[in-house]
From TrEMBL:
GO terms for molecular function: ATP binding. The keyword Nucleotide-binding applies. Keywords: ATP-binding, Nucleotide-binding, Sulfate transport, Translocase, Transport. The lineage of its organism: Bacteria, Bacillati, Bacillota, Clostridia, Eubacteriales. It comes from Ruminococcus intestinalis. SMART domains: AAA (SM00382). This is ABC transporter ATP-binding protein.
Amino acid sequence: MYVELKNINKTFGNYKASDNVNFTIEQGKLIGLLGPSGSGKTTILRMIAGLETPDSGEIIIDGKVVNDIPASKRGIGFVFQNYALFRYMTVFDNIAFGLKIQKKDKKYIKERVSELVELIGLKGLEKRYPSQLSGGQKQRVAFARALAPNPTLLLLDEPFAAIDAKVRQELRSWLKEMIEKLGVTSIFVTHDQDEAIEVADEIIITNKGRIEQIGTPIEIYQKPQTAFSASFFGQTTVLDDYTKFKTFDVVDGADKAIVRPEFIKITKLNEPFRQKASVSVGEVVKTAFRGNNIEVTVKCDGGVINGVRGLEEPAVYHGEKVNVFLYRLFVTKGDNAFILENKSLTEESVVI
Ligand SMILES: Nc1ncnc2c1ncn2[C@@H]1O[C@H](COP(=O)(O)OP(=O)(O)OP(=O)(O)O)[C@@H](O)[C@H]1O
């Protein structure tokens, strides 16, 4: 394991920003720390960097406990959301900054900076000042500056937050490619689920100072282990009473049932559908064109749910009665989440 946090606690006043945080990260992985505002993501990053001290617990990097090692000696690169470039320094000098502090010789600095300028695709702009760069370019320079001293670990705090939507998209894929190519273990903080899904090899979900779940984006999306991960991730609707939908097991003491649009099949009454015997009938209360599909909101006996229909399927209209079939749902009980599959599907597979 390359980075390990063991029983980390950190309190600010009477607020527990880290509550017994434990996780391990393998070398070369790109990890997303994802959670709502105030859930303790930045605190974790700052403790790893050495900018904040845990009240208890151990931070281990490359097999060594680093709690007592100052930030400057941890060999970590840091990229902040607001670029934090030195305004009165050129691109070259910004990137060279860490190397000058390390007292590297001029020849080495020149070579290293030109290698990095090439890597970030800004060759020819070495003499520009930050004010003469776009947001995306500034963030690339910040990335190169953090990489210049060959850090063993790269920490990025909301690295895309200050960048406008279109460039952000480009920068995300660029960063992912770059980190894969360099193989440097990296942890980035985000509160944006799409960003975490798209960029991270693994996601650590934080909530109220605790770790809710750790896994690949697909694992967390498909198998949320806690009530929080089930409702935080993806576009969800909560049902009033899932037992009104046919062929599901009933969980004693369940609090909520959560569905995602891809768990639902909405069909017209006369449309052929294999599980027709197990559908519920609902009424369309809203339709919205979403570019690559139509979002359809249906009021059923068990609650109001959102599903999607493809653009090539026959249209459904406001006020129309439709069939609704739920493939699966997440049921929460306390902090736990369970996945319930529609029994009509399993029964059918037994028959086959
Ligand atoms: N130096 C500090 N002094 C006092 N309270 C702090 C300090 N740093 C963080 N906190 C508090 O600790 C909690 C967790 O903060 P943290 O910045 O780690 O959350 P976050 O998940 O990164 O949130 P955001 O997405 O808003 O940045 C917050 O309630 C915050 O106000």
